[in-house]
């Protein structure tokens, strides 16, 4: 219950832009939202990879990401998964989740890695590493997962597909803008909160969620001071 977006960008070299919302929603009967918490990071990063998830954030998934972040060989593990087109640890994870919480709670992922080369992949609940979900008819320069994915995909289709038909690919700046805007405009009950942005290049992975949150708080405080001055007149 989320929205995760990945966009392939080109600024002389290929790079991957990830964007995600930060809302965690508790539900009843798998459909009725009863509480929401924002400010939750849904994109894990390493020195040469980034991975966003859609699914129920449960103890097995927390352990999966904790181990992935702390594992000194995580880069090799992810590179092997990309090369073999199969992420065995994801299959093992979802087997645990299905046994305890039910198959509907299984997680799937967007994965970006700079090894063996810069690329973006969809990882299904069985651990298959694919260029796109099997339910999508064609490969595009963007992928979306989560409950807000339909709304986000519709926005990206309108904004991107007419913008770079005769170009090598979408620019870095536009990829960032469209990823952010696609999350921002999503009309989904389970998507919300501050937006996280991650940029993966051949030699770096950088997360900008904290910077965006600081900027938003500063803007609110500035506007509050303007309101105080205006209301005192």
Plain-language structure description:
With 233 residues, the chain is α+β, with helices and mostly antiparallel strands. It has one domain (4-208): Aminohydrolase, N-terminal nucleophile (Ntn) domain (Glutamine Phosphoribosylpyrophosphate, subunit 1, domain 1). Helix content is 36%, strand content 26%. It is built from six helices and twelve strands. The chain has helices at 59-70, 74-84, 88-101, 149-160, 172-184, 209-231; strands spanning 4-10, 14-20, 24-28, 32-37, 43-45, 49-54, 108-113, 119-123, 129-130, 142-145, 196-201, 204-207. It has a five-stranded antiparallel sheet. A five-stranded antiparallel sheet has the order 5-6-7-8-9, with helices on one face. Strands 3-4 form a two-stranded antiparallel ribbon. A hairpin with a 5-residue loop joins β8 and β9 (129-130). α4 runs antiparallel to α5. It is globular and about 65 Å long.
The SS-based structural class is alpha+beta
Spatial strand sequence of the major β-sheet: 10-1-2-11-12
Q: What's the number of domains? A: 1
Q: How many helix segments? A: 6
Write the layout of secondary structure elements.
Blueprint: E1 4-10, E2 14-20, E3 24-28, E4 32-37, E5 43-45, E6 49-54, H1 59-70, H2 74-84, H3 88-101, E7 108-113, E8 119-123, E9 129-130, E10 142-145, H4 149-160, H5 172-184, E11 196-201, E12 204-207, H6 209-231
Antiparallel strand pairs: 1-2, 1-10, 2-11, 3-4, 5-6, 6-7, 7-8, 8-9, 11-12
Helix pairs in contact: 4-5
């Amino acid at each position: 219950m989320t929205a995760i977006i990945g966009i392939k960008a080109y600024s002389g070299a290929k790079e991957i832009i990830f964007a995600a919302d930060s809302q965690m929603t508790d539900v009843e009967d798998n459909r009725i939202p009863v509480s929401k918490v924002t400010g939750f990071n849904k994109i894990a990063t390493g020195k040469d990879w980034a991975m966003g998830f859609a699914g129920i954030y449960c103890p097995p998934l927390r352990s999966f990401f904790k181990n992935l972040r702390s594992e000194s060989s995580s880069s090799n593990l992810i590179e092997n998964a990309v090369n073999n087109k199969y992420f065995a640890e994801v299959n093992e994870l979802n087997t645990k989740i299905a046994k305890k919480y039910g198959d509907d709670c299984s997680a799937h992922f967007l994965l970006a890695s700079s090894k063996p080369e810069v690329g973006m992949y969809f990882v299904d609940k069985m651990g298959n590493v694919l260029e796109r979900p099997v339910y999508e008819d064609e490969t595009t320069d963007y992928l979306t997962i989560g409950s807000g994915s339909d709304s986000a995909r519709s926005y990206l289709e309108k904004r991107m597909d007419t913008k770079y038909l005769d170009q090598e690919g979408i620019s870095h700046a536009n990829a960032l803008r469209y990823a952010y805007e696609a999350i921002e405009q999503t009309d989904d009950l389970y998507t919300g909160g501050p937006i996280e942005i991650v940029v993966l290049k051949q030699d770096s992975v950088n997360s900008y969620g904290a910077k965006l949150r600081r900027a938003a708080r500063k803007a609110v405080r500035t506007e509050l001071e303007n309101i105080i001055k205006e209301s005192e007149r």
